[in-house]
Design brief:
The chain has 322 residues and is mainly α. It contains twelve helices and two strands; from the N terminus they run ααααααααααααββ. A two-stranded antiparallel sheet has the order 1-2. Strand 1 and strand 2 form a beta hairpin. Helix 4 runs antiparallel to helix 5, helix 5 packs antiparallel against helix 6 and helix 6 packs antiparallel against helix 7. Keywords: Membrane, Transmembrane, Transmembrane helix.
């Protein structure tokens, strides 16, 4: 679908809440680069997911990471195609459908990463592979029940964010020439991003509190969760600023807009994804619980409170994991 009019930006300029600007020729190289980076990451995601095949809930958690990598290959593939076909000033958006699809994928993909981080933090909080004195109150039966309720609320918030993003996407085409629909789409996307931002902020807060109050869980492990959460929160913060802004048409194709997008969303998402497959979540965060620990123990002899990799990564020092 081409737009060759006296005001070539008129149609795309009326689209609400554009993220990442309008892909143009300079976007082709970085878009291809991210396609390659996620293509290289995909086999690692599949391998890591396979190692987490027991219990099934842990495998499902990381299947979502694999799906995210596939989603981003599609996202940047669309962006590269748009950039290759774009022609300024007469035809900035050669395919409106592809442009909208890219915007939809950008709006909901990163929420998967936040959802995965919730599971890792939950597992870390109720781990029982540390000395009894180091366990948190969340590791006790009554504590687990309370924590599970909180986690469900956080998951529900992210599911709501995805639903709002999809609802906004369903109205995207109709928002082009309808100011009322455009306003509604922007509101839906703002609420969606704000929910994810709140969840990411809570992940940082809880990680920081664990670092201060429960160092026995493993300082490096908790620092890892804190660091990844701090990287993750950059994405919804950037997106909130972009979906609430009303940039000029010139700004939508500016180098500054593109650089911010590739650094503050593209690079941050990739770094979080890499971080999530670099370590064995069963060892570092007790992901999968006792079932996963039994599977680990079947392939190696486990010393008290951890297996060989646990002791290599976090040596016990007077009952404290570091």
């Amino acid at each position: 679908m081409s737009f060759n009019t006296t005001d070539p930006y008129g149609t795309v300029g009326s689209l609400p809440s554009i993220s990442g600007g309008i892909p143009t020729q300079p976007d082709f190289a970085p878009a291809i680069l991210f396609c390659v980076l996620y293509g290289l990451l995909l086999p690692a995601c599949i391998w890591r997911t396979h190692t987490y095949r027991r219990p099934l809930r842990l495998m499902w958690t990381f299947i979502r990471l694999t799906l995210f990598a596939i989603m981003r290959i599609a996202t940047f593939g669309l962006r590269a195609s748009e950039a290759h076909s774009a022609s300024l000033p007469n035809n900035p958006v050669p395919n409106l459908g592809a442009f909208i699809a890219e915007q939809v994928l950008l709006g909901i993909g990163f929420i998967v990463l936040a959802d995965l981080m919730i599971e890792l933090l939950k597992s870390h909080m109720w781990r029982t592979d540390v000395p009894p004195a180091a366990e948190t109150r969340w590791a006790l039966p009554e504590g687990r029940f309370s924590l599970q309720r909180i986690v469900r609320i956080m998951h529900l918030a992210l599911i709501t964010a995805i639903a709002l993003g999809i609802a906004a996407a369903a109205q995207y085409s109709g928002a082009i020439n309808n100011a009322s629909t455009a306003s509604q789409v922007q509101t839906l996307r703002v609420v969606s991003v704000a929910l994810c931002l709140a969840v990411c902020g809570l992940l940082i807060l809880v990680s920081l509190l664990l670092l201060i109050t429960h160092p026995h869980l493993g300082v490096y492990r908790t620092l890892y969760l804190l660091a990844v959460s701090c990287i993750l929160v950059i994405i919804p913060a950037y997106r909130l600023s972009s979906v609430t802004a009303s940039p000029s048409l010139a700004a939508l194709i500016s180098t500054d807009t593109q650089v911010k997008f590739y650094i503050l969303q593209g690079a941050m998402e990739w770094l979080v994804s890499v971080s999530l497959i670099l370590v064995d979540a069963r060892i570092w965060f007790f992901a999968g619980g006792e079932t996963a620990q039994m599977m680990l123990g079947s392939s190696t002899t486990s010393p008290p409170y951890g297996n060989g990799e646990q002791l290599a990564l976090g040596q016990k020092n007077e009952g404290t994991y570091v």
